[in-house]
Write a structure and sequence with these properties.
heterodimer, A: 249 residues, mainly alpha, globular, B: 71 residues, 3 helices, 87% helix, 0% strand, flat
Chain lengths: 249, 71
């Protein structure tokens, strides 16, 4: 595996995982602070084990799928997934929808869990475990998909797992150190980076799987990354202009 | 059954946030390579046009969402 292949696998896995784990951490912290650390950690650990089992079970199996079929299916899913991230991130950058605010999400989750707490210790503990499990499982599903999609061969799977693992350790360490949601992580910028890289890889694989040839071979992925970055900048500018046009008298 | 529907909904939501651009993207993914391969074009032009389809969908759908949300 070359250095550029490693970077194209580990970087999007790391950035996507960082964003998703930060969002999951907010809910786990809210459960820990409001109900208790035991249900918060039990739910988070259960979901992490489940997701690790999914990646462990499907990862090696995917390597046995014929390359053209894998590239077509996974490339198409990556395009859909990447463009969805880019659409949302562009609308947030343009100020059309609000940026994801971890402090606000933490306050909302704490308030709703506070109401659960009045139902009694056992019920609250169960509810905390389920909330923590759901948050980690939900955000982690996106991580699992990205890791599986990027890790199509043994060494790629290791690079994708490494990227996601570093993000997990970083988020858990920061969360344990400051006991507050990580509100200063530039989530939207990271989402644009991930969306651009996934869309570029998806476009490359889908076209290759369907029999199109890319001039320059693998180097075309780098051009696609630059091209998607430009398209996203144009989308943000377009959304700002469309918004101005819609609100003008 | 409710749990299965909920899990299926969450998995679907990974790929779909807005149906019209998603359907156009799927249509371009399905038809684009066949149309482009059938046309007498150089590989570089085919690749550029394939990307341009997705870029146009991205720019168009973001502008449409912005217009809709700001009413």
């Amino acid at each position: 595996m070359t250095a550029s292949q490693f970077a194209l696998t580990a970087v999007p896995a790391f950035a996507a995982s960082l964003v998703e784990f930060v969002e999951a951490l907010t809910i786990v912290l809210a459960v820990g602070v409001t109900i208790g650390w035991r249900p918060a950690l039990r739910g988070a650990a259960g979901a992490t084990l489940l997701l690790a089992a999914v990646v462990g079970a499907f990862g090696p199996a995917l390597a046995r799928i014929p390359q053209a079929a894998f590239e077509t299916v996974v490339g198409s899913l990556l395009v859909l997934f990447g463009l969805r991230w880019l659409r949302k991130a562009a609308l947030r950058s343009a100020g059309v929808i609000p940026l994801h605010d971890e402090a606000k999400a933490f306050a909302a989750a704490s308030q709703s869990l506070g109401a659960e707490r009045s139902a009694g210790d056992r019920a609250a503990e169960w509810s905390g475990t389920v909330t923590s499990f759901n948050a980690v499982a939900l955000e982690g599903t996106e991580v699992a998909f990205i890791v599986l999609a990027l890790g199509r061969s043994g060494s790629s799977l290791a690079a994708a797992c490494l990227g996601a693992g570093i993000a997990l350790v970083a988020v858990v360490a920061l969360g344990a150190a400051i006991h507050r949601p990580l509100a200063k992580v530039p989530e939207n910028a990271l989402k644009i980076v991930v969306g651009v890289m996934l869309s570029a890889l998806g476009t490359f694989w889908a076209a290759e799987g369907l029999g199109m040839a890319w001039p320059g071979g693998d180097a075309a992925v780098l051009l696609l990354i630059a091209a998607y970055a430009c398209a996203t900048a144009l989308a943000v500018a377009g959304a700002r202009a469309a918004g101005r046009g819609a609100t003008a008298p | 059954m409710k749990a299965v529907r909920s899990v299926a909904g969450e998995i679907l939501a990974l790929f779909v946030d807005d149906w019209p651009p998603t359907l156009v993207t799927i249509a371009w993914l399905g038809a684009g390579p066949y149309l482009l391969r059938a046309a007498p074009l150089a590989d570089a032009v085919r690749a550029l046009l394939f990307f341009c389809g997705f870029a146009a969908i991205l720019i168009g759908s973001v502008a449409a969402s912005a217009r809709r949300r700001r009413g």
